[in-house]
Design a protein that fits this description.
Elements lengths: L1 E3 L7 H13 L3 E2 L5 E3 L8 E5 L21 H16 L5 E3 L27
Parallel strand pairs: 1-4, 4-5
Antiparallel strand pairs: 2-3
Helix pairs in contact: 1-2
C-alpha cells in the first residue's frame, strides 16, 4: 500500500520519480531474510491511496492545516501520473477513490514504513 500526498508545487517529474522509485524499491525479503526484492520480483501489486492529510502541518498549533496540499484537480492528475509510471513497470496498480471517504485496512508485516520525498532525491 502506498499513501501518496501531493504537495503544492509538485510536478509531473516528481510523480514520475516516485513511480519509478516505488516500482524499483527493494523492500521485500529474499531467501536470506534481507530486504532485497522489489514488488515486481515478488509478484506483488500496489494499492495506491491519495492521502492529502500527509501534508498536514501541526507545528505551533493543535489543529493541522492543509495549505501545503495541492489543489484537488492537479493532485489527482499527478496521482494518476504516478500510478501510470508504476504500471509502466508491469506492476498491477489498484487505486483508491480520489477525494472519497474510504475505510482502508493495512496489516503492516514488520516494523518497516518508508517515507519517500521527491524533493529529497539526493
Amino acid at each position: 500500500m502506498v499513501l501518496l500526498g501531493v504537495e503544492t508545487g509538485d510536478s509531473v517529474q516528481d510523480a514520475r520519480y516516485l513511480g519509478d522509485k516505488i516500482a524499483k524499491l527493494r523492500i521485500f525479503s529474499d531467501d536470506q531474510g534481507k530486504m532485497n526484492l522489489s514488488v515486481s520480483q515478488v509478484g506483488g501489486q500496489v494499492l495506491m491511496i491519495s492521502q492529502f492529510t500527509l501534508l498536514g502541518d501541526a507545528r505551533g498549533q493543535n489543529r493541522p492545516g492543509f495549505t501545503g496540499a495541492e489543489e484537488p484537480q492537479r493532485a489527482n492528475a499527478l496521482f494518476e501520473e504516478c500510478c501510470e509510471q508504476i504500471a509502466g513497470h508491469g506492476i498491477q496498480v489498484a487505486r483508491g477513490v480520489f477525494r472519497a471517504h474510504m475505510q482502508v485496512s493495512l496489516v503492516n508485516d514488520g516494523p518497516v514504513t518508508i517515507l519517500l520525498d521527491s524533493r529529497k532525491q539526493f
